[in-house]
Amino acid sequence: MEKRTKEQAIESVKGSISSIFSKEDVIAIINSIKEESGLDKEDLIEAIIDELSNGRHHVVDLDSAEFDLRGNEIQLTAVEFTNGMLQEAVASGVNDYINRR
After folding, report:
1. For residue 69, what pLDDT band results from cuts at 50, 70 and 90?
2. Alpha-carbon distance 57 to 88, whole Å?
């Protein structure tokens, strides 16, 4: 079935013959359907960041961390990311975003 906007569906109903339901009943039902809103990129990004920072996903391989001591400072010089956990965190953030909509 072809996807239509609410307006297209209403126009189609207006142009059809009546059935058990009146045209007004069908139009009221169509109007009660929540329209899909566009993707809110900022909310999606926030959901992914929240998922990455909530501590459930360890995307950094702590055992791979390498440090240098320079004077009174300790500097992180290398660290590896665990791709699987990073992918899982991003997927979880996207799912959370979708489920909130």
Report:
1. very high
2. 8
Provide DSSP, the chain: -----HHHHHHHHHTSPP-SS-HHHHHHHHHHSPPPPPP-HHHHHHHHHHHHHSSS---EEEEEEEEEEETTEEEEEEEEE-HHHHHHHHHHHHHHHHHH-
Which residue is associated with the tokens 């501590």? 55
CA distances from 9 to 20, 32, 96 (A): 18, 13, 31
* Listed residue (8, 6, 60) closest to 36, CA to CA: 6
Number of other CB atoms surrounding residue 97 within 10 Å? 19
- Give the residue from 60, 61, 64, 59 showing the smallest Cα distance to 89: 59
